[in-house]
Amino acid sequence: MTCPICEKRKSARFCPAKGEKICAVCCGTEREVSIDCPSDCPYLVAAHRYEDEHQRTLPRDSPLLDVKVPQDVIYTHQNVLSGLAFTAAKFSATQPDTTDSDVLAALEALAETYKTLDSGIYYEKPPNTPPARDLYTALAALLSEAKQQSAERPGSSAFAAGSPIKDSEVFPLLVFLYRMGLLRTNGRPRARRYLGFLRGQFPAAPEFKREESRIIVP
Prior knowledge:
It is elongated, with a radius of gyration of 20 Å. The two termini are about 15 Å apart. Helix 4 (about 80-95) packs antiparallel against helix 6 (about 130-150), helix 4 crosses helix 8 and helix 7 (about 165-185) packs across helix 8 (about 195-200). The protein has a two-stranded antiparallel sheet. Helices cover about 50% and strands about 5% of the residues. It is built from 8 helices and 2 strands, in the order ββαααααααα. The model is unreliable at about 210-218 (pLDDT under 50).
């Protein structure tokens, strides 16, 4: 049979997302691009394993590359950092269409917002796409709660790890998560590698139960 995507080459691999066989070339080029691959597809798993063995570097044109992320801020406010990561992972569990690109867009936009706060000029520009914009709102709400609780009850907040967190300290936390995402994703439009990594940091959370397999034996 001819591949239904290119209509040129012979179909050889069963694609669980398409529910039919496609050629190996289209599997490789359209994976996580035009094909929304399930996480347990064996070809996707093999591709991700290869990517793990060949670590990605930060693209030179990435925003916020010149920002210095102090290690003491990461250590002092690791609970806030974990809260942000958990919020993104939980959001993706309730909104399965969310991709790494959405998470990166939300983190970058929120980091830029806090950058303006630190300069004394408030300027907010949420992402345009619905998943990224909604995640931006969820992350912003978490940070607002964290700052309020740490200011009112220093040391007793679920988010605080000692002293109240400042806007100038929130900014590098967001940059840290953004850079981590750039390194964890593979840059494909429908990739969810970074989201999978975030979910893996909370193995006991019931929200992140393994999704039911979409692979159908042909």
